[in-house]
Amino acid sequence: METWFAERSVGQLLPGDHAWFSYSSQEEQDHVIGTFLRDGLLTADKVIYVADADPHELPGLRRGDGLDLDGYVRTGQLAVLPRAETCLTAGVLDPGRMAASFEDALARAARDRFRGVRITADMTWAIRQRSGRMRVLDCEAGVDAAIAPSTTAMAICQVDRRSCTRDELTALKETHEVLVGADPEFDDGVLTITRMFAPRGLRLKGELDGARHTVFAEALHAVTAQGGDIHLNLRDLRFIDLGALNMMAGAAIRMASRGSLTLDEPPPDLTEVVRLVGGPMLPWLKIGTGERP
């Protein structure tokens, strides 16, 4: 049976959403979870992170970015809850205790009259424990029971996909109805540009014409500046002009000594153009098959 998921960017999460996020690098975690945390602090939400960490060590907040994290902690808007006090019994993940802790946190936030509540926890450590997968699955059911009926709360459950088997990732993902990812770097209703992390690159959606060359050039430069292999996913790109295609070829030429540029899942007509002129004009552009699962 095929499972249905709602896919939202982190800025589009709604009250009642119990979302799933798997990451493959600190950069990806910082990008998505950092946005979730910062947006909550800047919009007067109660922000709760279950972790054995200092607030300054949380994903996306390590640099501070001008946020007075100590001030948010003093006022109670930001709470970092140790695992031992939130979800462990005798050092082992306790699904019942975690669900009760979340319910208590929601009740406290309501009494303190916060606009909303954002909760997140990285469960990678729990997966590594003996019987960790089953305990995490039980936790997810409890979290969903606490969050789904809420009109003010949203939660993101995180896991490092590099620490999980494919079967574990599938089982965990299927306990959630919402999959969360990065916010677009640019979106004007015609063209959407979104960062990708596995593989590294950009996803383009809509129409890439002359009026949007500048924003595309900026996004392309930002993602290629560090070197390495870069992918542009074009599956949802309905139109691209020759100028933008030449920009991609130019970027590929500049990257030739330190990486490659691959066009993933391009529409059939674009694939044909690249193949027809690729030999003499665009030999640096490669056609790929898409993102890794």
Q: What descriptive keywords fit this protein?
A:
293 residues; alpha/beta
Protein model, in words:
There is one protein chain. The chain has 293 residues and is an alpha/beta fold. Helices cover 38% and strands 27% of the residues. It has helices at residues 26-42, 69-75, 83-86, 95-111, 124-127, 132-147, 166-173, 213-224, 242-255, 268-278; strands at 6-9, 18-23, 46-50, 78-81, 88-89, 92-93, 117-122, 153-160, 178-181, 184-187, 191-197, 200-208, 230-240, 261-264, 285-288. The strands form three sheets. The chain has a seven-stranded parallel sheet with strand order 1-9-2-8-7-3-4, sandwiched between helices. It has a six-stranded mixed sheet with strand order 10-11-12-13-14-15. Strands 5-6 form a two-stranded antiparallel sheet. The radius of gyration is 21 Å and the shape is elongated. The relative contact order is 0.13. The mean pLDDT is 89.
